[in-house]
Automatic annotation (TrEMBL):
SUPFAM superfamilies the record matches: P-loop containing nucleoside triphosphate hydrolases (SSF52540)
Disordered, as annotated region: 1-41, 342-378
Listed InterPro entries: HerA-like, P-loop_NTPase
Biased composition annotated in UniProt, kind: Basic and acidic residues: 362-378
Name of this protein: DNA helicase
Low complexity bias: start-end ranges: 1-17
Length: 378
């Protein structure tokens, strides 16, 4: 097996198909776990040796591709590999509500994820509520969250009501905090790093949340996992998976995600992002990724953004190397300094992201829909 993220190789038996059952070897080249990714695509469009990702050390991974090219599928395949490793803790930010199948084998799906208000720094609350932090209303919200110790949105609203500020300022600040309360994304007993690092997959389904609230959840989770590992408050090494990552980098979660990219690997926190719009990501999201999985892209702006951030990644031109087939990807690995084309394996867990087809519709009224999958829901 060729192991990405490692300079060593494992033995490989010949033959097989990319659709064969892929099971985790007991240990990678370093003795740690690996995540089976797929197989090399041969020049004759056949399949070659198996390819996996070394999970013994933390990584910053970026999966890109146009809609329908397979990026979310690939993100889920990586999450499956992480879930099979006892020492790792996969946490998934799912903005589209399609990744709950990852929790089928004993994981947890949070249909309405809630975080503690103080998990979002007071300085970030004005931006979260689309306020100018230097303005009267924004600064009052900032102070209210800080001085109420972020215990609850209700406590912050009480502080605003008692503040020595103009009535119009208090009313505006209270209205914005009331909106945050309506999101139903904050709770003094919200999910924290210890629960997230339980070792079983945790899927945070943010599809029912407004974008700002989903960003707050992502920011709280990213910051919480990082701080917990720095303090050595959790033992397992977290992997945070973020689908549609461009939307989160552009909001209140941007700073927390950038911290994981630039400093997360030292305390043992990995970040894996997927996006169909790499041009919308900050340059650091591409340049700091030691593992880049590039599916088909059509936008010249997206291709140019990858090429500009990784000019030495593919010497003969990134655009010419991107595969056209669904589920195929160019994988640029900084550690092994290779850029193979891979056919990503089939998922083992239920795939909710596959688009509906007319051929799959059952019109008999007596039929019932058997929704595969399970996992605990909260």
């Amino acid at each position: 097996m060729h192991v990405l993220g490692s300079e060593a190789e494992m033995g490989e038996s010949s033959g097989g198909s990319v659709d064969d059952e892929e099971t985790e070897p007991t240990g990678g080249p370093t003795g740690g776990p690996i995540a089976p990714l797929g197989r090399f695509r041969a020049p004759d469009d056949g399949v070659g040796a198996r390819v996996g990702v070394d999970l013994d050390r933390p990584h910053a991974a970026l999966v890109v591709g146009k809609r329908g090219a397979g990026k979310t599928h690939t993100l889920a395949v990586l999450a499956e590999g992480v879930a099979a490793a006892d020492a790792l803790a996969p946490v998934v930010i799912d903005p589209m509500g399609v990744l709950d199948g990852l929790a089928v084998d004993g994981g947890t799906v949070h249909r309405r994820p809630r975080v503690r208000p103080d998990a979002v720094p007071p300085s970030a609350w004005p931006a979260l509520l689309d306020l100018d932090p230097a303005g009267a209303v924004g600064s009052l919200v900032w102070r209210a969250v800080a001085e109420s110790a972020g215990s609850s949105v209700a406590a912050a609203r009480e502080h605003v009501g008692d503040a020595d500020a103009a009535r119009a300022t208090r009313r505006a600040a209270d209205a914005h905090l009331a909106l945050a309360a309506e999101w139903d994304a904050f709770d003094p007993d919200g999910i924290g790093p210890r629960a997230l690092a339980s070792g079983t997959p945790t899927v945070l389904d943010c599809s029912r949340l407004p974008p700002a609230a989903a960003g707050a959840v992502c920011a709280a989770v990213a910051r919480g996992l990082y701080d917990a590992r720095v303090r050595e408050a959790i033992d397992r090494l977290p992997w945070l998976f973020v689908d549609e990552a461009h939307a989160f980098f552009d909001g209140v979660a941007g700073d927390a995600l950038a911290t994981l990219l630039t400093r997360g690997r030292a305390p043992g926190v990995s970040l894996a992002c997927a996006t169909q719009r790499p041009a919308a990501l900050p340059a650091v999201a591409v340049s700091q990724a030691d593992l880049l999985v590039a599916h088909r892209l059509h936008s010249r702006a997206d291709i140019d953004a990858l090429a500009a951030a990784r000019p030495l990644a593919v010497a003969d031109g990134l655009a010419d190397r991107l595969p056209a087939g669904v589920g195929e990807a160019l994988v640029v690995d900084d550690v092994s300094e290779t850029a193979p084309t891979v056919r990503v394996r089939a998922r083992r867990t239920p795939d909710r992201g596959a688009g509906p087809r007319a051929s799959g519709v059952r019109t008999d009224e007596a039929d019932t829909v058997d929704r595969e999958g399970g996992g605990r829901e909260e």
